[in-house]
Amino acid sequence: MQLGSEARNAIIKIAYDVLSGRLDSISGSRRLWRTADEMTNELPPEFDLFVEIDQQTDWLGENTRTSEWINCEIECKDKVFASCKKLLLYLEDQRQETIEIANSVLTGKIGLLEGAHLIGSCASDDPDIQLLGVLATETDHLPITAQEKIVWNPERLIDKEREISEFEVRTKDEILSACKKIVEKLERYEVAG
Predict the structure, then answer these.
(1) Residues 58, 158: contact at Cβ < 8 Å?
(2) What is the pLDDT of residues 113-156, one digit of tens each?
(3) For 13, phi and psi rounded to 5 degrees?
(4) The domain containing residue 51 runs over which residues?
(5) End-to-end distance of the chain based on CA atoms, in angstroms?
(6) Which DSSP symbol is given to 125?
(7) Chain centroid to CA 156: how far?
(8) pLDDT tens, 20-58?
(9) DSSP 21
(10) Are 178 and 132 in contact (CB under 8 A)?
(11) How many domains does the chain have?
């Protein structure tokens, strides 16, 4: 799962609100699950508990503080806290990995299209990540990584490498600009720390 800045910020705020006690575990679980579900179709296992709590407590209503609600809150609070911490660590790891890939593109350690494929393959509301995703889909038919190139017929690979080179020349500025913006956005904050 790759979330854009809007979704990440919303999820981080909710998780911190739960951990600080500004939001109870049940309401926090429901909001985390529903916020992420609206932003992406691809949820990591870190959201499993939030989904489970949402489903188990749906019948309680949103604003009722009945004895059933209180019992459920007591029962799930420690699990929700642990899951919020795991979620924040997951988002921080994801942030670091995305920065690393974008910087590798910017420094030439990995190719433009390989970086576009790695970053752009994730669902996101971020326009720069979406741009990389669009560019990546335009080259899905091409062997981008060394592992993909190994299985290609050498004669056909020459033609495909020429096509890759031409595409990279046309899109170089767009890819580099998107990677630079992604790094700038993600370096502004740490998720957990």
Answers:
(1) no
(2) 999 999 987 767 788 999 999 999 999 999 998 889 999 999 99
(3) -60, -45
(4) 5-93
(5) 21
(6) S
(7) 35
(8) 999 988 888 888 888 877 766 667 777 888 888 888 777
(9) T
(10) yes
(11) 2
